[in-house]
Amino acid sequence: MANLIPVAETVGANRMVPTISIPYPLGDPESSEDEQWKLRYHRVGVALEALETAIDEQTVFEV
Question: Residue 3 contacts by C-beta under 8 Å, 6 or more apart in sequence?
Fold first, then answer.
């Protein structure tokens, strides 16, 4: 999971899942707790799927 995808690509990360922002990678303090939970649950789910996915080159996973 990375909030700066271009930096993650530069350093050679092979699987990248975009996050929300630098200070709040898995949340948005302006939203409700329920919305934040749904957002986090979804992003972590995408990250787990990324780990299970066979890849041959650097891949940015859609969220």
Answer: 18, 19, 20, 21, 22, 25
Q: What is the spatial distance between Cα 27 and Cα 61, in angstroms, rounded to a whole number?
A: 18
pLDDT digits (tens, 9 = 90+) for 26-35: 988 899 999 9
Domains in the chain, number = 1
Record the pTM: 0.86
In this structure, are residues 63 and 43 in contact, taking their beta carbons and an 8 Å threshold?
Answer: yes
DSSP letter at 52 equals: H
Q: Which domain holds residue 46?
A: 5-60
The residue behind tokens 């709040």 is: 24
